[in-house]
Amino acid sequence: MAIWNPWHGCRKISPGCANCYVYRRDGSVGKDASVVAKTGDYDLPLRRDRRGEYKLTAGQGAVFTCMTSDFFLEEADGWRPGCWDMIRTRRDLRFYIITKRIERFAQCVPPDWGDGWEHVTVCSTCEDQERTDRRLPVLLELPIRHRQVVSEPMLGAIDMEKYLATGLIEHVTCGGESGPGARPCDFRWIREVRRECIRRGVPFTFKQTGAVFVKDGRTYRIDRKDQMSQARKSGMSYVPGTGSADAIAYRLPERADLFARLRRSEFRSRFHLSAKDRAYVSEKGIAAIRGQAAEIVEKRLGAENPENDGKQTPMRGHPVFVAQHATACCCRACLEKWHHIPAGKALTAAERDYVADVLTDWIERETAGKA
Ligand code: SF4
Ligand SMILES: [Zn+2]
Fold it and tell me: From the CA of 150, which ligand is nearest?
């Protein structure tokens, strides 16, 4: 990746700006980050080396634009047209623009922008639900060829599924906040957005834990040097069609412990086989039921991204369906929550066997009156 900072300095406008790293870095050398000034790198995309070749080449990867300011800042209105000219000239590069000012986009594009330029990706940040609901509708309405979303620092739970459902968002990145005074980031928020991305087939990256990371109700202080590697190790990043979630290390619950937890759940313990279900089980025999369970698991849960996930299991009509609700094997989110099998990957043969065994076990216990 290459970085092009045509100007430097910015104005805080959003809760995500509170601990802005530009302010922090400038402050540490006695510089005022609120002063916006053109940099010596303003014309970087057109600059050439001694042999007359462009200094920025496509081989360097995407050009991250305006990383120490905001491309749509009012103070830069006079300099931006020159940037668009350079971007227009360098169609061989990919420009990547991250902004907290997406609402200024329409008044800031050049006259020949049309329905967007193929080599420009525009990325709106949204750190909380309010910013998400304000900015993503704007991002979706604008003529942009490539749209992405960044929730970093993520400051609260965010539901963005209805925006992902449009199919217009190409990537979502989440992460916590780093530096002194960092606000906490809860792993549950990350997982929820990830699940939404999986359901909608949108690539997802968990970029960094941040300095204050909350997992299962416990707060961890994470060293700067470990924040990115810890996020990577969690295996949460998701690329559709690659089995990327296979990277998540997990352990299946012990059967006795699982059944004990299920008994304590008011919702799960409500499910029981009907007289008709019991008659069906005794007529077919448990081996045949195990075979049907395996088929149902493969068909309704086995895919990386099962159709209608979350709603694919009827409440009744087959003893296996009832067993699925009773044992939290009804959808991939429940499989992840109760059985730790990550969503966003096809089930392996061993995982399918495990699920079919849990279902058969429950049905046997139920018919023997001890589920
Ligand atoms: S918009 Fe970005 S660069 Fe500007 S103050 Fe906020 S966080 Fe910092
Ligand atoms: Zn479920």
Answer: 1
